[in-house]
Amino acid sequence: MSAHRVAASLPRIGVTIGHVPQKLKTGGIEPSRRARLEVLRRIVTRTVREERVELKWNRAVEARPYVERLIQLGVERGPLDEYTAEMMEWWLLEKDLITKMHEVIVPRFQNNASPFTSLFRLPPQRLQQFIQNKREVWKRYDIGVLEIHGNPFPPVQEESSEQSDSILDILLADALRNHQMDLQERLNSEKSK
Amino acid sequence: MLRSLVSSVTTGPTSEWAGRILIANSGLISQQRGRRRTLTPVPWLPPVKENIPKTGVGMSQGTKNLLEQVIEKETLANSTFAHQSSQETSVTIGDIPETSRRVGLVVRKIGMLPQWTNEGTRILCTVLEVNENHVVSITSPEMWYKSSAVGKRKAFNRHGPMWRVTVGAGNDDPTKYTLAYRRQFAKAGIPTKEKLGCFLVTEDALPTAGQALDARHFGVGQYITATGKTIDWGFQGGMHRWGMRGQPTRRTTKSHRRIGSVGSVGDARIWPGKRMPGHMGYEWRTVSGLEIVRINVDKQVIYVKGSVPGDIGETLLLKDCLQEEKRLKSGPMPTWAPSLETIDEEQETEPEEGVVPKSLLFNEKFSPKLFRFTSPSIVFTDADAKKTAGRDKTKAKIAKVKK
Amino acid sequence: MFRPAAREVVRIPSRFFSCKSEPVRAATSKKQATKEEIAGLIPAFPEIYPDFLQSPVWNRRNALKEELERQDMLERRMNIDIPEFYVGSIVAVTSSDKNLGSKDHRFVGICIRREKEGLLHQFTLRNTIENIGVEVLYDLYNPTIKKIETLKLEKRLDSDLGYLVDALPEYSTFDFHMEPQAHPAGTPIPVNELKVKLKNPPWTRRWEISSCRGIEDTWTQATPWYKRKLHKTLVNDYEKYDLIANYRTSSTKEHEIYVQAQMQKFEKERHAAGLTRRRILKSAASYK
């Protein structure tokens, strides 16, 4: 809450964020706050490049707000803003992606409110790690799919269809209607008293 | 989480004992569940939360919408009936005998903020929200004694027979809960409640089941007792949990915050009760003698001087303070009801010129010593200065001789 | 990655999916109106009114509590004129004290800190009196404060001037009988780019590794002991890239707009009731 802010406030992002930053570990980097940003930076770059990525669930959850915020900066401030330019420069490791961000992704959301991304959970997968003395070592992974809206791929989740033709549904609706009428009558009788 | 809260709250006002169950039949008093805190729900009570996935039940969108409408209407109907029943009950403002125990409120701590007195002293207040409180059920001491192990201890205690009054707070979506949990609210004719709390009440102060409880159950200037779970710190070391000193910063390796020695050489064991690292907080604690300095009637908010146990957002039980000098001598019995409102209105005087009209302000009750933000800044006169009856320093200090 | 091979997207039963927010595919919802469209809003609201922001601790953000305390704060602002001031401005505070002969106490100093939200908001004034540095911490909403005046409206390079403790005393010496300097309406708030010189070490804090812009060359003054320890200290200049760390503690545009609308409504009601003509929501940098 400093009196001298870097830039004007931005709207909320339509994504839940945890109140504690999670530790993210990866091979080759000693885990630290700096390393966490490095892991996230790679994920953000990959997401902007591929527009739909499969990740470990915890990483996808952690990376989603960063993608969201970066797109929001582009939408709210535009490419000419100094702060936005600095953030794009740092977060997108491959420089052609800055052009893609400003010319392809940001125009998609000009008239949209957040969220600009979706996160889906895939069924957990067991993958073989290695074989040690004829013993197979398997590991379970929770997998999430992070995607930027408006991508060219087919939808991850099929549209839910109306199932109103089932007999149970019809009976339930009828019972509910009767109950609603009863309640209305009770309320009316109380009011007239 | 919620289930554990509900099950432990229902064990009554002396809730330090929550989670301890006594075996009544055998002469042994043995502790069955956790010593300081119980983080798992009690196994013998029916579950509270229903785990039905919202999607894929085979309901069409139209039926879903209809269900939502019906639930909304049912909540509305229940609220109106409960409100009307509480209007019909007879309540009086009068003397409260020393032997009687009134019902309490289930509140939520929503924050802390400073207030100032007319003397300019700062008071840090806790803000407590009374969210839709209704009486859920009333159990007679005989019934309570028969049905529960807790009742064996509490129904006929040294203060005489006690009725158990369960109070619910906060309306919630009934589809989230099991039928067994919802049934108790249907019986009282009130909407499904999120939180429950129990109070020990004497016969002369019994409310009726389904009655709505108001923040004005307590008065400004009254002292209250707050009971709740303390802040959950999780697993903490000896320095934080017990205030141990730790070990020196310099010339020490990897032992700066360790607890040090844990016992003697003689008997090679650790004495029970040795202070050690472990789970800190989330225990039932009671703080008594807190003064109510301000009540916002419109928003049903109580400002209490001082701090209460627990984090912001936690549920607390508020009761009358039982300390002799802070006991409530007269007040609404058994509880505040809308029929008492007319008495308050008549006492108010006509508004003066230059004073903010009542329509722009919340309906609030202030302690007379509290500064009101609608009034101008405090200006002191010579009369306010501290009278120091100081000794005449030019003369020597001589002891007074008793005659 | 851990996946052995790319796999085509297969149809998976929907019960495995969980999505926190419903996916929005097309232009369904309209973007919020820009600040030009909403009349009378102050762009620099968080700087002028840091007391109206939300707590940086998310647990402590509660709409009802904020509403109640905002009501108290606005009532107080109707009774006392709280001017616009920043960290670095020179402020005079007159407060009543019952144990003083004159019953009034006036203190002039540079504002070195503004902290906390809501009714808890505090600011610290610093001055040097008889060669002794004095800092006075005031509660902004304390009813014993009779008058707050901004003698010189300006900003400094930092949002916390804690380093004035270790600076030479002339940087925090201000005349008690200083004439107030009027700020021309509609001009931006001037930033005083003064760089202070520190006293010789020892200092209260390690200013040579702090990111304060308002201190002149701390490195030459730092002692060799601390210079040797530089490699051990955490230099975290990458923290500014953590977009979400910033978002966790800062205020949102929605909140600012909502609070300003509430303040305007409050003003309008009080003016209509004929109680006062005092305006609460105002900015020295804007023409209105």
> Under CATH, the topology of the largest domain in chain A is which?
50s Ribosomal Protein L17, Chain: A
Strand content of chain C: 5-15%
Question: Pair with the most extensive interface?
Answer: A-C, 53 and 59 residues
Largest sheet of chain C: 5 strands, antiparallel
Strands of chain A, count? 3
The amount of helix of chain A comes to 40-55%
Biggest pleated-sheet summary of chain A: 3 strands, antiparallel
The helix tally of chain A amounts to 5
End-to-end distance of chain A, in Å?
A: 56 Å
> Under CATH, the topology of chain C is which?
SH3 type barrels
Return the CATH class of the largest domain in chain A.
Answer: Alpha Beta
User: Order of helices and strands of chain C, N to C?
Assistant: HHEEEEEHHH
How would you portray this structure in words?
The complex is a heterotrimer of chains A (193), B (403) and C (288). Chain A is of the alpha+beta class and 193 residues long. Chain A folds into 2 domains: 116 residues, Ribosomal protein L17 (50s Ribosomal Protein L17, Chain: A), CATH 3.90.1030; 30 residues. Chain A is 46% helix and 18% strand. Chain A is built from 5 helices and 3 strands, in the order αβαααββα. In chain A, strands 1-3-2 form a 3-stranded antiparallel β-sheet. In chain A, a hairpin with a 2-residue loop joins strand 2 and strand 3. Chain A is extended and about 75 Å long. Chain B has a domain of 226 residues: Translation factors (Elongation Factor Tu (Ef-tu), domain 3, Beta Barrel), CATH 2.40.30.10. In chain B, strands 2-3-14-13-10-15 form a 6-stranded antiparallel barrel. Chain B has a 4-stranded antiparallel β-sheet with strand order 8-7-4-9. By secondary structure, chain C is α+β, with helices and mostly antiparallel strands. Chain C has a single domain, classed as SH3 type barrels (Roll). Helices cover 18% and strands 15% of the residues of chain C. In chain C, strands 4-3-2-1-5 form a 5-stranded antiparallel β-sheet, with no helix packed on it. In chain C, a hairpin with a 2-residue loop joins strand 3 and strand 4. The radius of gyration of chain C is 24 Å and the shape is globular. Classes of the chains: A alpha+beta (193), B alpha+beta (403), C alpha+beta (288). Chains in contact: A-B, A-C, B-C.
